[in-house]
Amino acid sequence: MTELEAGRAQTLAPVRSGAALHRYRDVLIALIAFAVLASLPLFTGSKALLDFVIRCSAYGLFATSLNLLVGYTGLTSFGHGMFFGLGAYSFGLIMQKLGLPIPVAFVATLAITALIAAVIGAICVRLKEIYFAFVTLAFQMLIHSTILSWASFTGGDQGLRGGIPRPAFLGIDLSNHVHLYVTSCALLVLGLLAMRQIAQSPFGYTLRMIRDNAARASFLGIDVWRAKLTVFVLAALFAAMGGMVMALFVSGAYPEFAYWTISGEAIFINMLGGVSTFLGPMVGTVLLLLLNDTVTRYTEYHGIVLGVVILFFALGLRKGLLDFVAEWFAHRRDAGEGR
Fold this sequence. Notes:
Subcellular location: Cell membrane
Membrane topology: Multi-pass membrane protein
Distance between the termini: 48 Å
Main location: membrane
Oligomer: single chain
GO molecular function: branched-chain amino acid transmembrane transporter activity
Keywords: Cell membrane, Membrane, Transmembrane, Transmembrane helix
């Protein structure tokens, strides 16, 4: 080993050890979070609460996957919901038509999603800002129209009827509500942990560099197109995971899962929670679902109320809730150190 190589190794050693420490910390936090969520049925018999957490799992995976594009890469997709719907429909159709074991159907759905996302992404990630946003929306509307038109296969506007078979595997019976709840929590925690590792990896920092200055990143030798395509496919996979959780929860798949409004909800969620902090989309998910559930009990004009809330965050705070809290604590810490 030359002196230069030895110097590099000595310089990188603290960085690698720090990254490993953060990875162990993230895994520990994930295990604690799963233990808390999985034990919830032991302390409450509220089916409504468990249903709420399952919905948070589905939408949380979906919204956080969008933040890989928006917050980390600077790619605003108006059509990300196509992968949520694609995951739900692919999984449901595989279970109905082929009757495969659930883990096999899960992997097959991810493979189908990855293939379609790679084709769509290869076209879209070459485009700039607003063109990228609207071309992804166009692809979503194409998929939604296909779902509606191919009624003999997808059920058309009625969705997949007859329910999704849920054969037991490894002692897990997803027709049992508690088993479904714990499985949804496990998928949420595993998905978030995987996305966290992506965000904190060298690839994640490459995405930030592309977000901040794509021309400089390209000048430094980074294959910008390949990096964007990779994160586009990864984000699609996690969105499809959310779609599969939702399909299992409602035992079906419906055209609304692939409509443009589902992408709008994911964007609203990121606006509510924030895109600068990793858990911002999860906070936004809880906020939006709570608002939806609460407001719809008292008024049919829930859209107006949600619009006012969005305007408050967009024009008042000018950032998501968790971003605002993180920035406030950072200012307090800096002020304390300056005394």
